[in-house]
């Protein structure tokens, strides 16, 4: 039993470290005012903290494409993000100089947009052992 709790604590610590690193990376980037992005592409992997709507068309109960989600998003509608507005990945993308949000993989329209970046994050992706264990059908 002690090992299981230790594994859980280790997973939580690793998840927290990834979040902190992501926030620090976003805070360290300062847009210089040019229209060119700081990097050529931006690929995002994660769970519900970064999901931009990849779960919308999946056969899962883990969805966020209904009110009140999205009430503070620029369009004012729920996009599938697990937040009222932008996610940390969206904010980092803006700081990197991207003019639009990185699209979810599920709706990336064409190859040229995929070359700019794609968001593969999915709510209940299971990055932690505890993720979704109560959502099993």
TrEMBL record:
<dbReference type="InterPro" id="IPR036514">
    <property type="entry name" value="SGNH_hydro_sf"/>
</dbReference>
<keyword id="KW-0443">Lipid metabolism</keyword>
<keyword id="KW-0378">Hydrolase</keyword>
<dbReference type="GO" id="GO:0005576">
    <property type="term" value="C:extracellular region"/>
</dbReference>
<keyword id="KW-0964">Secreted</keyword>
<comment type="similarity">
    <text>Belongs to the 'GDSL' lipolytic enzyme family.</text>
</comment>
<feature type="signal peptide">
    <location>
        <begin position="1"/>
        <end position="33"/>
    </location>
</feature>
<dbReference type="GO" id="GO:0016787">
    <property type="term" value="F:hydrolase activity"/>
</dbReference>
<keyword id="KW-0442">Lipid degradation</keyword>
<protein>
    <recommendedName>
        <fullName>GDSL esterase/lipase</fullName>
    </recommendedName>
</protein>
<keyword id="KW-0732">Signal</keyword>
<dbReference type="InterPro" id="IPR051238">
    <property type="entry name" value="GDSL_esterase/lipase"/>
</dbReference>
<dbReference type="GO" id="GO:0016042">
    <property type="term" value="P:lipid catabolic process"/>
</dbReference>
